[in-house]
Specification:
alpha+beta; ph1033 like fold; 8-stranded mixed beta sheet
């Protein structure tokens, strides 16, 4: 089992929760293909909306990959993003700042936001548990 962070605006996360899916890296498939059924994903939202939303800096959803492979959504001829099915847990939006000292994947606490610039990345079980506990308490 692998634990992931997916950096996505809150508005996009809410659409994913409502539809039971996730996208990554503006609809590209490469990081989604690295995920497997049963992997956990925590969604971090730097902003309320993309590209011009207000700053948010919070974990906004948590879920588990519920399919075996990537699929492509047929939204319109110009945009057909790749997705994975996700079963989301009930949770509360959780600001990141109170958790910074406990999160080991953030090596430089003064520049904590840098890590999220990669979009999707792996975290270890300890960090997953810290965030999950805060979101589902």
């Amino acid at each position: 089992m692998t634990y992931w962070i997916n950096t996505v605006s809150r508005g996009h996360v809410q659409r994913g929760v409502a539809g039971g899916f996730t996208q990554a890296n503006h609809g590209k498939p490469h990081m989604l293909r690295r995920m497997a059924r049963g992997d956990w994903i925590i969604f971090y939202s730097p902003k309320t909306d993309y590209p011009d939303g207000a700053p948010l800096q919070a974990f906004t959803a948590i879920g588990q990959v519920a399919d075996d492979e990537v699929y492509q959504a047929d939204l319109d001829p110009e945009f057909q993003p790749f997705r994975r099915k996700v079963e989301f847990l009930p949770c509360s939006e959780t600001p990141i700042r109170p958790l910074l000292d406990e999160l080991e994947f953030i090596e430089d606490k003064a520049r904590w936001g840098y890590r999220f610039r990669f979009g999707v990345f792996k975290i270890d079980e300890h960090d997953f548990d810290v965030i999950r506990t805060a979101m589902t308490a």
